[in-house]
Amino acid sequence: xxxxxxTTDQFLPRFDAAGLVTAIVTEAATGTLLxxxxxxxxxxxxxxxxxxxxxxxxxxGALWRKGETSGNGLMLAEMRVDCDQxxxxxxxxxxxxxxxxxxxxxxxxxxEADGRLTFLNDDAQD
Amino acid sequence: xxxxxxTTDQFLPRFDAAGLVTAIVTEAATGTLLxxxxxxxxxxxxxxxxxxxxxxxxxxGALWRKGETSGNGLMLAEMRVDCDQxxxxxxxxxxxxxxxxxxxxxxxxxxEADGRLTFLNDDAQD
Lengths: 126, 126
Fold this sequence. Notes:
The structure is a homodimer. With about 130 residues, chain A is mainly β. Chain A has 2 helices and 8 strands.
């Protein structure tokens, strides 16, 4: 553990070998977990400058603004950083469903003891 | 997007090149984000078998049970998986502070516009 990073009052993101940190997105009003993505330095800077969540797509190798095609952008209410500064929490106000499936949250399935997944309704995701 | 993984009712974790998925840990009773870690197949299996959260430490290259040294274990209430099955949500009942700093959550600092971090009290982390 880098003890400096957990006590400092300076924002010093600890990027991995690919230049990324994990970004956890929750709904500001409810705290509900909406999605997880990755951010590079540019995505962080753009998110802070514009107030709209930007991420780095590992599969496409490209920067993207959430909602640029779907219209379902995420307005930043608050950003937090974890103890070792390799993960960010984005508390947002979503303009629509955060998941590409049209669901409120990407975490819409519960893992059961037998390995089956149970699908949850949007209102059961809090 | 692997469309099969987002519609299936089978738990089929999509591990990265290092054999890991992202694990997001929230407090079951409140939904508060506590910590983020990584899990390999063995950590997932042990967590499901024992009901106590296990992770893979990338820095130490070792499996660990949260609380094995601190005593602050995480009892699993529910596991969920995201649309493309490369991230898990562990809803837990914590036996004590989840963060190694003694705080309830690892996300105890807000990123301000000027790049300074504001430290939050435990009860401001919901």
